[in-house]
């Protein structure tokens, strides 16, 4: 017997392919014709949509950020709209890989001490352990895999200015 996959469902021991009428939103009902029987099922969405304009702006060590999908317990990743401060604190993550996609502005990313020039439509993957920060006024997407974890934030004490308490 076939196992259910992304385009079929298991119902009362039967594996059924695409529903009559196709797939839809959570509020849509799909049904299958199975011999003389008709099975009615709710079809769940396999995507989630968020608008950054509706997300709260939070302060972080890099500037200000809006985090999409970070609050979802089952989310495998999160996407952050980040507006860099002039001189963010150099930090690193032990588990998280970050992909920065520069949207606006030009500057540099300091990556393990190397100044890498960036401009709009530049993407840079920052692997765990890489000390990093942005230098310059920029707006970017930060894609975090796995999703944002405030406990996966580390910095060198020497990089923190006196009286400053970095928040991630």
CATH topology of the largest domain: Jelly Rolls
Count of β-strands: 15
Helices, by number, come to 0
Numbering strands along the chain, what is their spatial order in the largest sheet? 5-6-7-14-9-12
What's the level 1 CATH class of the largest domain?
Mainly Beta
Helicity, in percent?
Answer: under 10%
CATH architecture of the largest domain: Sandwich
Q: Mind describing the biggest β-sheet?
A: 6 strands, antiparallel
If you average the pLDDT, what whole number results? 80
Radius of gyration: 22 Å
Which structural category do the helix and sheet elements fall into?
Answer: mainly beta
**Beta-strand share of residues:** 35-45%
Short description:
The protein is mainly beta and 168 residues long.
Task: Record keyword descriptors for this entry.
168 residues; mainly beta; Jelly Rolls; three-stranded antiparallel sheet
């Amino acid at each position: 017997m076939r196992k259910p996959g992304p385009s079929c469902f298991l119902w009362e021991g039967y594996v059924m392919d695409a529903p009559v009428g196709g797939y839809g939103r959570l509020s849509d009902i799909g049904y299958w014709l199975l011999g003389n029987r008709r099975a009615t099922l709710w079809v769940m969405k396999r995507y989630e949509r968020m608008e950054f304009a509706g997300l709260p702006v939070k302060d972080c060590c890099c500037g200000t950020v809006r985090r999409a999908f970070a609050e979802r317990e089952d989310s495998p990743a999160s996407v952050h709209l980040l507006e860099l401060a002039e001189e963010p604190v150099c930090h690193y993550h032990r588990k998280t890989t970050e992909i920065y996609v520069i949207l606006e502005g030009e500057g540099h990313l300091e990556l393990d001490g190397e100044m890498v020039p960036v401009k709009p439509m530049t993407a840079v993957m920052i692997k765990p352990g890489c000390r990093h920060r942005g230098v310059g006024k920029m707006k970017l997407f930060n894609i975090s895999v796995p999703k944002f974890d405030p406990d996966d934030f580390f910095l060198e004490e020497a990089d923190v200015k006196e009286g400053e308490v970095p928040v991630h």
